[in-house]
Design a protein that fits this description.
Rossmann fold
Length: about 260
């Protein structure tokens, strides 16, 4: 399957004056889920999505899949594995660190990107004329956001898609990030609320909200508060369940089928 430009796909959702392609969103959600696989399974998954080339990068626990075809490149970062000490350490190391593009970002997230960045650059230098998409879930979403800010210095980023991403950087860093970014948040996903705002971390990108019923909806702040309350009433573990990547895949698939 070839990634399509907005205007060629039958399903869209609207966010103010911005439009995101539902098919692209669904493919990126599949890639963000695929990123949890090893190299062999990742290559198989990328092939099923229409990508003939694949590179699996794994260094000191940080992992990323890069897949490409004749037109597009997808860089998909793996999210947090609770059993991985490096992942837990990266999540907890929230001290702000100077970013490559200016401003400050989460030290742990940036360290994970640093571990795989040289290999990513090697692949990207051979794909410069293609459309570049970046995606990731959880820790992978944070890594994807930092990586996109670096890629933007040398390449044209078509779009970044993140799912259940934590906050990444401060206000100065955000102002230096010009790429298009759709940030999916599923109801009470608890990871999207860390690191805390009092540490001056901010979210980047256009919010795409998934309500308690699994539907992508444009909602006011008050409507989201009420919707989050519905989620809380469904059980104490709602915030953990909402973080599950398969739930994000299901929501984008549902939107595409509507």
């Amino acid at each position: 399957m070839i990634l399509l430009e907005p205007g060629f796909c039958p399903g869209f959702f609207y966010l103010g004056d911005q439009m995101a392609n539902i098919e692209q969103s669904h493919i990126m959600a599949k890639f963000a889920l695929l990123a949890y696989q090893d190299g062999k399974e990742g290559k198989k998954g990328a092939s099923k999505l229409g990508f003939t080339g694949h590179k699996f990068i794994d260094n000191d626990g940080a992992q990323v899949h890069v897949a490409w075809n004749d037109e597009s490149v997808v860089v998909a970062f793996r999210g947090t594995e609770p059993t991985s000490f490096n992942d837990v350490k990266a999540d907890l190391n929230a001290w702000p660190d100077k970013a490559m593009v200016g401003g400050r970002v989460h030290n742990g997230f940036q360290t994970e990107v640093d571990n795989v960045w040289p290999e990513i650059e090697k692949v990207m230098k051979r794909q410069t004329k293609k459309k570049i998409y970046v995606c990731g879930h959880s820790l992978g979403g944070a890594m994807a956001t930092i990586a996109a800010s670096r890629m933007e210095m040398s390449y044209k980023i078509q779009c970044l898609y993140t799912f259940g991403s934590p906050r990444v950087g401060n206000r100065t860093w955000l102002k230096n990030c010009k790429f298009e970014h759709y940030r999916f948040v599923n109801n009470n996903d608890l990871v999207t609320r860390v690191p805390p705002a009092f540490m001056l971390y901010k979210h980047h990108g256009t919010l795409v909200y998934i309500n308690h019923y699994g539907n992508i909806r444009k909602m006011t702040s008050w409507q989201r508060i009420k919707d989050k309350f519905r989620g809380y009433m469904s059980g104490l573990l709602d915030g953990m369940k909402d973080h599950s990547m398969p739930n994000y895949v299901a929501a984008t698939e549902k939107a595409y089928d509507d």
